[in-house]
C-alpha cells in the first residue's frame, strides 16, 4: 500500500503539497498507479494517481470512513532529552506502536527549553504513514508539568520514576483501562518535589524494572507494553 497524507472532503481527496512533491520528484510515480490517501482522522481514500506536470492528484474509487482505531489509547507526557535525536527516536517508535497522543513535558530538571514541535509533528506523520496508520497521534506543545496536571484524570494517569524509596507498582500490575496517560521524566528523573506533588494528585507510581532506563527507552518501553495490549484486544 502506497499511503499518503491529505484532505478528504465530500467524496474527494486532495494530496498534501509536500506529499505531491515527494510523489513526483522523489518517488517518480507514474500516472495510473494505485495510491491511498488518509487525513489522519480515520478516513481513507483509494484510487489511481493522476500526474499533471509537477502536481499529483487522485481519482477516488472508494472512501472508507471511521476506520478502527487502536485500543487502548495511550498518552505519554515525556520530558525532552538534551540530545533531541533521542526524543525523535522515541516519537518514531511510539507512533509505529500506536500511541494516541504525545505531550512534551517541561520539568524542574529539563535542560532543553526549546522544541521544534513542527518537526516532531512531521516525523509523527511520516511514522504513521510508514506503519499504515489512518489515525495520526496528537502532538502537543511543550508545557510545564504543573500546567499539564491541571487537566488530567488521576484514575488513568501513572508516573514512571526511579525513586526506590517510594512505593511503586509493577507495570504489569496496572489494571486494564480504555486509556492511559504516563509521565516520563528527564535525564536525572523527576525531582523529589515533583514526585511528591504527583502523589498528592493521586497519580500512581510504576516501576519499569530493575534497570534504570533512559528517558526515550522508558517511553518506548511503555509504548511496547500498550502495543501488546492492543494486539491481545485484536485477537480477542
What does this structure look like?
The chain is α/β, with parallel strands linked by helices. Helix content is 30%, strand content 30%. It is built from six helices and twelve strands. It has a seven-stranded parallel sheet, with helices on both faces. Strand 7, helix 3 and strand 8 form a beta-alpha-beta unit. The chain is elongated. It starts with a strand and ends with a helix. The mean pLDDT is 93.
Structure summarized in a few sentences:
With 236 residues, the chain is α/β, with parallel strands linked by helices.
Most strands sheet: 7 strands, parallel
Q: Which structural category do the helix and sheet elements fall into? A: alpha/beta
| Assembly state | single chain
Nearest-integer average pLDDT:
93
Total number of helices: 6
Q: How many beta-strand runs?
A: 12
Which band does the percent of strand residues land in? 25-35%
- Strand order in the sheet with the most strands: 8-7-6-11-9-12-10
Distance separating the two termini:
26 Å
What percent of the residues sit in helical stretches (DSSP H or I)?
25-40%
Poorly predicted segments: none
Coarse morphology: elongated
Whole-angstrom Rg: 20 Å
Helices and strands, in order, run as: EEHEEEEHEHEHEEEHEH
Amino acid at each position: 500500500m502506497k499511503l499518503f497524507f491529505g484532505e478528504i472532503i465530500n467524496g474527494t481527496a486532495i494530496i498534501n503539497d509536500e506529499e505531491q512533491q515527494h510523489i513526483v520528484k522523489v518517488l517518480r510515480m507514474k500516472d495510473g498507479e494505485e495510491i491511498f490517501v488518509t487525513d489522519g482522522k480515520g478516513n481513507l481514500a483509494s484510487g489511481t494517481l493522476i500526474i499533471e506536470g509537477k502536481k499529483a492528484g487522485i481519482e477516488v474509487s472508494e472512501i472508507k470512513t471511521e476506520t478502527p482505531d487502536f485500543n487502548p489509547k495511550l498518552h505519554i507526557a515525556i520530558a525532552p532529552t538534551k540530545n533531541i535525536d533521542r526524543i525523535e527516536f522515541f516519537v518514531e517508535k511510539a507512533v509505529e506502536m500506536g500511541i494516541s497522543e504525545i505531550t512534551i513535558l517541561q520539568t524542574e530538571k529539563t535542560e532543553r527549553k526549546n522544541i521544534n514541535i513542527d518537526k516532531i509533528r512531521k516525523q509523527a506523520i511520516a511514522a504513521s504513514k510508514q506503519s499504515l496508520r489512518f489515525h495520526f497521534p496528537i502532538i502537543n506543545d511543550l508545557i510545564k508539568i504543573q500546567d499539564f496536571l491541571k487537566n488530567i484524570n488521576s484514575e488513568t494517569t501513572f508516573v514512571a520514576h526511579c525513586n526506590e524509596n517510594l512505593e511503586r507498582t509493577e507495570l504489569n500490575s496496572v489494571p486494564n483501562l480504555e486509556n492511559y496517560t504516563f509521565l516520563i521524566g528527564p535525564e536525572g528523573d523527576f525531582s523529589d518535589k515533583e514526585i511528591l506533588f504527583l502523589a498528592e494528585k493521586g497519580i500512581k507510581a510504576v516501576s519499569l524494572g530493575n534497570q534504570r532506563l533512559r528517558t526515550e527507552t522508558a517511553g518506548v518501553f511503555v509504548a511496547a507494553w500498550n502495543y501488546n495490549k492492543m494486539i491481545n484486544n485484536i485477537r480477542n
